[in-house]
Amino acid sequence: MFIDSHCHLDFPDLAKDLDELLLNMQKNQVTHALCVSVDLPHFPRVRALAEAHENIFASVGVHPDYEDEIEPQAAELAELAHHPKVIAIGETGLDYFRLQGDLEWQRERFRQHIRAARKINKPLIIHTRSAAVDTLRIMQEEGADQVGGVMHCFTESWEVAQQAMAMNFYISFSGIVTFKNAAALKEVARNIPLDRMLIETDSPYLAPVPFRGKQNQPAFVRHVAEEIARLRAVELEEIAIATTNNFFDCFKVNRNG
Ligand SMILES: [Zn+2]
Ligand SMILES: [Zn+2]
What we know:
Elements: E1 2-7, H1 12-15, H2 18-27, E2 30-35, H3 43-52, E3 56-60, H4 74-80, E4 86-95, H5 104-120, E5 124-129, H6 132-142, E6 149-151, H7 158-166, E7 169-173, H8 183-191, E8 197-199, H9 221-232, H10 236-250
Parallel strand pairs: 1-2, 2-3, 3-4, 4-5, 5-6, 6-7, 7-8
Helix pairs in contact: 4-5, 5-6, 9-10
The structure holds zinc ion (ZN) (2 copies).
């Protein structure tokens, strides 16, 4: 069995076919999915999905790429996370690739999320792109190691992975690890300790090979696991069991519901 640790099932492109996507998960032994919040106005639809489906979990947070948002405060985020199906704070982090200029607001927003996570004692879902040094520094300064969490859709170096793991973070691989041109990332996926690894789709984005360029969906997380098994020359079952156990450990979810 497989778990998609990061998807956006609430986005209209996916939500309109929800029944079919849930069925595809079942057919591919994808038992659970974590639907990740990107802004507060749409958080209610993320939470509603988790309330309606036993195998869907939710998070709460405001994505670093979403510029014109009312800045969330730690107390508010912690309050919204006070719900049994809301298992993480995020996605949050830094993105210096999509946005340029004075991004102090992004760093401050990231700090508020870490404080919220510490307040409510739930793990963080961290997005980092072209901003690894500042991301690690702020994690350090705000004590993110006290709650841990996941570096989602990981595309950074082995050194960054090591520093994140030292702060109790898991490393999550997306469909990017299946791309031909991702040699460095494939090397990271070969070396990550089995007990620190998660898998995700980040759907509707980043469909893995052989669906590259098409709309992604949680069922495709299986192809991420297949590629990692191939890279490490181990049975698919081994990756499935490890990443499933890691999901429940990382997000402190009781596996019996
Ligand atoms: Zn992201
Ligand atoms: Zn995402």
